[in-house]
Every structure is written in C-alpha cells, then in structure tokens.
Design brief:
Structural class: alpha+beta
Order of helices and strands: HEEHEEEEHEHHEHEEEEE
Distance between the termini: 16 Å
Number of helices: 6
Number of strands: 13
Strand content: 15-25%
Largest sheet: 7 strands, mixed
Oligomer: single chain
Shape: globular
Amino acid sequence: MADHQMGLHGTGRDDLNGPTRHALAQTHHALAQTRRGMLAGLAATVGGFSLPLALPTFNTDALAASAALPFHEIAEGLFVRYGLQEEMSAQNGATIANIGFIVGEISVAVIDTGTTTQQGTALRAAIARVTDKPFSHVIATHVHPDHCFGHGAFAAEIAAGEIANVGHHRLPQALAERGAFYLERIRALSPDFSDTRFIAPTDLMREVTTIDLGNRPLTLEAWPAAHTDSDLTVRDARTDTLWAADLLFAERLPILDGSLNG
C-alpha cells in the first residue's frame, strides 16, 4: 500500500485557524488511527487467505475427514474438490482452495494439491477411485500455500522424474522468498501438518504451452503479474474448460499481491 498523506490538497488555503483548525486536527488524527488499524489488519493477511496474528494450535481426528472433501466430475474426465468458504484453520483441515485433476487416455494431470500433505494424499486417493492411469503432471497454479503445499504427497514420483512438476517460471523464486513463512504458519495450525512441505517446480512455463494426456491436450498459459507474479491457467480442449485458479474469485474478496492492473 502506498504511503499517501491524507489532508487538504489543492485548497490553496493556509489560513485556517481557531475551531476549523481544531476540527481538522481531530479529523487527521482519526484518519491516522483508522489507517494504522487497516495496516495492522493487512499485516495479518497473506496471499489469498487470512492468518490470525496469534495462531492457535489444534490436534483433531477430524483433520483427515476434512482433507477428504468430495471430488465432483464437473465435465467429462475433469474433477474438482471445491474449497470451503472459510478462513484456513485446523478444524477445517485448511481446505479452502479448489483443487482437482484431469484424466486423459494415457495419464492424469493434477491441478493444485492443496495446503497440506494430507490434502495431497486425499487427492491421490480420489484419483485412484476414478482411474488406474499414472500421474504424468503435477501443476501448481501459483505460489499461495492453499494451492501447492500438498505436493509432498507426490514427492517420490517427482524426485524420480516420473511426474513433470509444472509451474510458472517465477514460481521457484516466489517460493524461495515466501515458502518458509507460509510453511511456518501452516505447521502452527496443527501438529498434524508438521510433514507438509513445498516443492518448487522444475518444468517452468514462460508462455503458452500444450501438454497431452493422451487425446486430451491441455493448454497452459503463464500470465504477467496479476493475483500473484506466478499465475498459471489450464485450458482443457476436450471440454473447453478453463481452470482459472485464483485469477477468478466467486463469493470471496480476492487478495491481490501481484498487480492491481492485472
């Protein structure tokens, strides 16, 4: 936020005195107090979610259940788990983002893995209930932890080079700058999240790229700074479905830490 001064600009008057000057002084003080309150609130807001300044710690058996929210087939072979319209917490398993997968004739592409290893594991289980085709791509749409910190559930295949770990070309730098902070906040929510980690992409998108899952081409596009500086969209040609991730918000107020101009 720019540090603009609030006051009488362009009035051409410097002769205000008496009660008028006193009233203006009170107004300026109130505006300053309001501005400080706004900045304090913004300090507790990171990415697309809000973090309390003092994070409570919970440990609950409901974590696994909340991480296993149902996946819906919204188009042929395209499955989505809708995130909860809530702030991230231990009680809701931090399941606040839409994540999912697309099934081709040869392989499966994962689009975002959620906030925790538990969510990534639940995602793997959901895919196994639908198909036995192998994973070929894990795609991260941007840096925010509710979208890409479940990658640890795919770590073995990523390390072995069996899965293409895909992201915007700016995502590795964004994770290097913010990842440790995000991870600290996620783990502070619950001890159950202690094994969560982030894995930076190695297949980096700089422009429009097409991948094929077997008679199922997906178009990946890396965008200039908008919601973040690492936004990536996925378009499924078969169903003409655009996975816009957090470039499009519904029923939530978006956080823009990339560019207000888009």
